[in-house]
Amino acid sequence: MVKIGSHVSMSGDDMYLGSVKEALSYEANAFMVYTGAPQNTIRKKISDLRIDEAVQLMEDSQLSFDNVIVHAPYIINLANPDPEKREFAISFLTEEVKRTAAMHAKQIVLHPGSAVGGDRELAVKWIAEGVKQVISNTKNLDVKIALETMAGKGNEVGKTFEELKAIMDLVGEKNRVSVCFDTCHTHDAGYDVKHDFDGVIKHFDQVVGKEFISVFHVNDSKNDVGAAKDRHENFGFGFLGFDSLLKVIEHPDFLSVPKILETPYVEGNAPYKEEIMMIRNQVFDPNLVEKIKNK
Q: What are 68-100's pLDDT values in tens digits?
């Protein structure tokens, strides 16, 4: 069975329990959460997350912990040229890895960072040093840090497979680092995911190794290939299209890898239940967005 789910919220009184409930409401068998707002580092104590109740509901619902993904906040930048800010990023990411382990999740997705000032080689070095330090700080925890493929917006590091490879080689801890393959980002970075996903994966395998892909973000794109803009579109309604994204989801090399939707809400309504149903039915519904608007 395809492992498919979406981003879900973790807020209010229910916290992690609410995340599991939301995923189940979408009939998902995988999901991804931020441990707080992705734009800041304000976090509740682990003891306030209602983890035990969430774990019990997952076990009752036969949701696998292998299919739970945590995403680090966007504002962490391990490549910041300010050493104090880099140290804060390392400290905060260390605590996020501890939260991930406490939530029984197996991996945390990380945007590698931004080469502030434009020195990409130095940024790669700093990112690797930061990831390596976080791994050292959490050496007894079974949590992978999944470096996300990036669209190339601004000075983002990770827009090429070669940059991800360079980071991973410098980290060295291959059992603790992996890759989150984002379809919108790789498309926007210039890889032909739409017409030649097999070719893209062959290239990735030659550079990094396809066995390092531990999660997919399956998003359509509002922009044509190579736009470097990172603007997600609903599943099948963008430049990538339904058939090419379905091929990613059903690729035989990655059936055991969870796929996560980060597609946009439609006029305040979450699209995930309908998108997951469309994916499982393997039939594109051109009226889906209108249906979500009116639900």
A: 999 999 889 999 999 999 999 999 999 999 999
What is the Cα Rg of the chain in Å? Answer: 18
Taking CA atoms, 217 is separated from 94, 98, 178, 249, 287, in Å, by 23, 23, 14, 10, 23
- pLDDT by residue (tens digit) across 155-171? 999 999 999 999 999 99
Half-sphere exposure of 285 (CA within 13 A, CB side): 17
Strand residue runs (E) in the chain: 4-7, 30-33, 68-71, 107-110, 113-114, 144-148, 156-157, 177-182, 213-217, 220-221, 232-233, 259-261
Distance CA 184, CA 68 (A): 21
The CA distance from 184 to 239, in Å, is: 9
pLDDT at position 205 is 98
Cα–Cα distance measured from residue 54 to residue 274, given in angstroms and rounded to the nearest whole number: 24
The whole-model pTM stands at: 0.97
- Here the tokens at position 210 are 């396809």
- Contact between 109 and 68 under an 8 Å Cβ cutoff? The reply is no
Band of pLDDT at residue 117, cut at 50, 70 and 90: confident
The encoded tokens of residue 282 equal 């393997």
Q: DSSP string covering 124-166, please?
A: HHHHHHHHHHHHHHTTTS--EEEEEP----TTEE-SSHHHHHH
Joined tokens for residue 51: 């983890």
- Residue range 169-188: mean pLDDT, rounded: 97
| Residue 129 CB contacts under 8 Å (≥ 6 apart), including other chains | 78, 170
**Cα–Cα distance between 126 and 212 in angstroms, integer?**
21
Q: So what's the pLDDT on residue 231? A: 97
Strands 177-182 vs 213-217: parallel, antiparallel or unpaired: parallel
**Amino acid type, 52:** D
